[in-house]
Amino acid sequence: MATLASNPSAPAITQNPDIRYLGRLLGDVIRAYGGEKLYKQTEYIRSASVDRARGVQGADLTDTGLEALSLDDTLAFTRGFMLFSMLANLAEDRQGVAAEPGADVASAIERLEAEGVGRGAVLDLLSNALIVPVMTAHPTEVRRKSMIDHKNRIAELMLLKDAGRAETDEGEQLDEAIFRQIALLWQTRPLRREKLFVADEIENVLAYFRDIFLPVLPALYARWERVLGARPQSFLRVGNWIGGDRDGNPFVQAEQLELALKKGCGAAIAYYLDALHALGAELSLSTELAHVPQAVLDLAEASGDVSPSRRDEPYRRAISGIYARLAATCTALTATQPARPASLKGEAYGSPQELRRDLVTVAQGLASEGDGALATGGALGRLIRAVETFGFHLATLDMRQNSAVHERVVAELLKQAGVESDYLALDEYARIALLRRELANNRPLGAPFSDYSDETASELAIVHAAAQAHRTYGPACITHYIISKAESVSDLLEVNILLKEAGLWRAGVDGAPPQAAVMAIPLFETIADLEAAPGIMTAYFGLPEIAGVVKVRGHQEVMIGYSDSNKDGGYITSTWSLYRASQALEPVFAEAGAAMQLFHGRGGAVGRGGGSAFKAIQAQPRGSVQGRIRITEQGEVIAAKFGTRDVAMTNLEAMTSATLLASLEPDPISARDAERFGGAMDALSKSAFAAYRDLVYGTEGFKEFFRQLTPIQEIAGLKIGSRPASRTKSNAIEDLRAIPWVFSWAQARVMLPGWYGVGHALTAFEDKALLADMAQHWAFLKSALANLEMVLAKSDLGIAARYLPLVEDQAKADEIFGRIRDGWARTHDGLLAATGQSRLLEKSPALDSSIRLRLPYIEPLNLLQVELLKRHRAGEEDARIKEGIELSINAIATALRNSG
Question: pTM above 0.70?
Answer without folding.
Answer: yes
